[in-house]
């Protein structure tokens, strides 16, 4: 186990943002954190990093509490807003962190090549584009060789090239055994990176391992019939239509649909289990 959070509660004024949240993250796990705006994803990350006062709870990495400076050797943060010194170069930033953690110059060079920032690392940050700043921040977040990285909306504002590169980097870090907690609103990207998606709602965390295996509806393809609309009007079971395909509701068994369709002489062409993607799961969970 790398990160352990126990019974974490955080309030802003009287509003409880995090309600008694507990979870663990193991070596090499990528967890996707998904929730609508304003739910508490950033607050959770900031609380883990002791950037927020909390009402109660314990947060440890490798059994070291976040009140201890050693905690920060093992955990890194890629925040959604990058705080960089405009008049310094990228290299200055890397040297600064390397000095604090007593790292060798060689380790800085390795990170520069891994992230691919060599061509501009000696320019001052004020000349960097948003994506270049994000790359520098990523380099800073992996310089200390953390066991886990918290990434708060890391894909925001990145062009397709930078997005592909960051996805590739996440896979590289994963292959090196680094754990990651990634919050994003981009469900397609997340689905590409991991099957372990956690949702947040009303201050609670819903941990659904392999969430994509949640029950998927069936697609019943109907053969063309003149009176089909009329026939389906009387169907007592809930359904959606997509062209000539009837999508079942997961709360009812497919047998019930087939039974009714056959009894009412609706001709069936084929029956398939549709693939449930993350957007479907999200819509179902948040009732969108
Ligand atoms: N410093 C603060 N003082 C008071 N309330 C705050 C403060 N920071 C955040 N909040 C409130 O806490 C709630 C959670 O905010 P948070 O930024 O953690 O959400 P989020 O899920 O990260 O949202 P987004 O997806 O928009 O980034 C929101 O209702 C927000 O208004």
From TrEMBL:
InterPro entries assigned to the protein according to its UniProt record, in alphabetical order: AAA+_ATPase, ABC_transporter-like_ATP-bd, P-loop_NTPase
Listed name of the protein: ABC transporter ATP-binding protein
Gene Ontology MF, one: ATP hydrolysis activity
A Pfam family that the UniProt record links to this protein: ABC_tran
Lineage of source species: Bacteria, Bacillati, Bacillota, Bacilli, Bacillales
Domain ABC transporter: 3-227
PANTHER family documented for this protein: ABC TRANSPORTER RELATED (PTHR43335:SF11), ABC TRANSPORTER, ATP-BINDING PROTEIN (PTHR43335)
Family per similarity comment: Belongs to the ABC transporter superfamily.
Highest taxon of the lineage: Bacteria
Transport in keyword set: yes
Entry keyword set: ATP-binding, Nucleotide-binding, Transport
Cross-referenced SMART domains: AAA
């Amino acid at each position: 186990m790398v990160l352990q959070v126990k019974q974490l509660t955080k309030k802003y004024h009287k509003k409880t943002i995090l309600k008694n949240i507990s979870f663990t993250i193991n070596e090499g796990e990528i967890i996707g954190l998904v929730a609508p705006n304003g739910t508490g994803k950033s607050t959770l990350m900031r609380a883990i990093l002791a950037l927020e006062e909390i009402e109660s709870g314990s947060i440890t990495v490798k059994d070291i509490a976040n009140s201890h400076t050693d905690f920060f050797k093992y955990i890194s943060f890629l925040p959604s807003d990058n705080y960089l010194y405009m008049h310094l170069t990228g290299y200055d930033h890397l040297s600064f962190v390397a000095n604090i953690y007593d790292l060798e110059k060689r380790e800085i060079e390795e990170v520069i090549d891994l992230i691919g920032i060599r061509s501009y690392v000696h320019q001052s940050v004020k000349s960097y584009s948003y994506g270049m700043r994000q790359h520098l921040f990523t380099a800073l977040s992996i310089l200390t060789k953390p066991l886990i990285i918290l990434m708060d909306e890391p894909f925001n504002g990145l062009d397709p090239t930078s997005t592909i590169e960051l996805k590739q980097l996440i896979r590289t870090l994963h292959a090196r055994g680094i754990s990651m907690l990634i919050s994003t609103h981009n469900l397609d990207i997340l689905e590409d990176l991991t099957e372990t998606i956690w949702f947040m709602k009303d201050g609670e965390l819903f941990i659904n391992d392999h969430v994509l295996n949640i029950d998927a509806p069936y697609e019943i393809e109907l053969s063309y019939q003149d009176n089909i609309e009329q026939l389906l009007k009387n169907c007592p079971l809930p359904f959606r239509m997509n062209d000539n395909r009837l999508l079942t509701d997961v709360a009812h068994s497919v047998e019930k649909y087939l039974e009714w369709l056959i009894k009412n002489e609706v001709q069936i062409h084929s029956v398939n289990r549709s693939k449930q993607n993350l957007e479907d799961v999200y819509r179902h969970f948040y009732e969108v």
